[in-house]
Amino acid sequence: MLVTGLEILKKARAEGYGVGAFNTNNMEFTQAILEAAEEMKSPVILALSEGAMKYGGRALTRMVVALAQEARVPVAVHLDHGSSYESVLKALREGFTSVMIDKSHEDFETNVRETKRVVEAAHAVGVTVEAELGRLAGIEEHVAVDEKDALLTNPEEARIFMERTGADYLAVAIGTSHGAYKGKGRPFIDHPRLERIAALVPAPLVLHGASAVPQALVERFRAAGGEIGEASGIHPEDIKKAIALGIAKINTDTDLRLAFTALVRETLGKNPKEFDPRKYLGPAREAVKEVVKSRMELFGSVGKA
Ligand SMILES: O=C(COP(=O)(O)O)N(O)CCCOP(=O)(O)O
Ligand SMILES: [Zn+2]
């Protein structure tokens, strides 16, 4: 059934488990995520970025909202990284039940003002809002420690920000970054910082850039002809610890992309005569579904629907 993001996340934070927000750009990802959620009896968030909205248009948004309404588990349809008020309005018009306004690259006062404006519009139509404070972008190794610190979420600022904006959940910058290259060795998550934020912010907290980028998947991608450098993701134990400290929404996109693409390459490589898309998109869909199920087990959302 179609519910708001807050309905899913408030329960998750209160009961100490995480809920996956999985990005979709097409029919196969959407089917894989929803089938996994129903099999695992897990709530789930279907996330569409602005890039997804541009790529799939109304064919994608109509399909996602309609399938979420029919789902046998709670599903929120979420705008990921909305960059403007106008972009959020488009998602509201499409029937989304959760929207992110990401003004984390702006100064604090601009972020507060723009986020507050979105909260007023979204709340007026019963939709809940994710905001972001702190810079998620990959922080290069050469950046000085104090500069890095300035880019991560400041706990006291987070408290004031949430009080002034009325946002429903908060994406925090605690060391993760988008994509397959999250840092050398075991990428860094600042759990002590997260603990301080969670003590001051009772709202559900959100972790972006949370993909695990498992080496087995990286190897399978390479073996199928894919090219990828020294990829690394967030260790499962670090995710579990972050959930125990207050993270309720965990974003996963890269792992799904790697799984899907590895299987497309692998199937086509093994069957050079194949040109029926169902024969190579089907196995890829199954691979995405397995990744989603394993993430739900890690997050603790199995059986929570
Ligand atoms: O946090 C994440 C994904 O994190 P991950 O890369 O660790 O999976 N996201 O918000 C996904 C962002 C996807 O945006 P786009 O469609 O423009 O490429
Ligand atoms: Zn993100």
TrEMBL record:
Entry-linked Pfam families: F_bP_aldolase
EC number of this enzyme: 4.1.2.13
Cofactor(s) listed: Zn(2+)
Keywords recorded for this protein, A-Z: Lyase, Metal-binding, Zinc
MF-aspect GO terms: fructose-bisphosphate aldolase activity
UniProt-recorded name of the protein: Class II fructose-1,6-bisphosphate aldolase
Phylogenetic classification of the source organism: Bacteria, Thermotogati, Deinococcota, Deinococci, Thermales
